[in-house]
Amino acid sequence: MFLNVIQIAESFGVSENVVEGWIRHEGLPHTTDRGRIIFDRAEVAEWAATHGLAAQAGFLAPDSTVFATGCHLEPLLRAGRIWREVAAAEVASVIDKVVAALPATLPPVRQLLSRRLRAEGGITWAPIGNGFALPHPSARIALGRDSGTLALLLLKDEFRAPGEETAITRMFFFIAPSPRAHLDLLGRLSQLLSAGPLREAVISGAPDDAIFAALRTRDHLEVKS
Fold it and tell me: Could you tell me the pLDDT band of residue 52, with boundaries at 50, 70 and 90?
């Protein structure tokens, strides 16, 4: 699994400038692909261990991540819905509809959030390989415990995000209720889509109920851990 600079920065809770400094001065392993700096997840994890660093959230979070923020994935997805046969040209429109239905949020807040997402750089698209992506607001948001949403968009043609060459065919778009929950969701979703029942259900085109069941099972396991 390859990550970009933004994803590495989010995982360690540092700025992109810090990550670039690690590359220049600390030997952070990386490579370039068509002019973009990318990182092999396993190599970064090994480098972090030798430098006394531990990613507590995001794409490098340990597999045994504790269910830290109380955000259950199944209710979030029921709020944001599963959208099938979405044309690449309709992605922005679907995201607008997801924001418009954001729970426990006043209309002016939803309208402001929609404008921010439509602005240049308003969304971090976060492709994670094999056609999957985890788009989310680039700016951290504090909406309140009862808000937040997760939407699964299954595309009928390939989507390429601005500035990205990776083709996306399946995306989980999320808005977290708090900055802490944002990193928690980013890490948990990236793990679930690397292997396991949720990934298999999405790839196979399973019915909505099967996808909800995969998340419900995961929620129960995390509560018990």
Answer: low
- Could you count the other beta carbons within 10 Å of the beta carbon of residue 51? 12
Find the DSSP H helices in the chain.
Answer: 5-12, 16-25, 41-50, 73-80, 91-100, 107-118, 179-192, 197-203, 208-224
Mention the CATH class of domain 73-224: alpha beta
Per this entry, what is the length of the chain?
225
CA 44, distance to chain mean position in Å, is: 19
What are the residue boundaries of the structural domains of the chain, listed by start? 2-60, 73-224
2-60 placed in CATH 1.10.1660.10: yes
Q: What percent of the chain has pLDDT over 90?
A: 45
First to last CA, the chain: 26
Place of tokens 């920065």: 9
What six digits make up the tokens of 95? 């995201």
This prediction's pTM:
0.73
Q: What's the half-sphere exposure (Cβ side, CA atoms, 13 Å) at 195?
A: 2
DSSP per position, 182-225: HHHHHHHHHHHTTSSHHHHHHHTT--HHHHHHHHHHHHHHHHH-
Q: Distance (Å, rounded) from C-alpha 161 to C-alpha 187?
A: 21
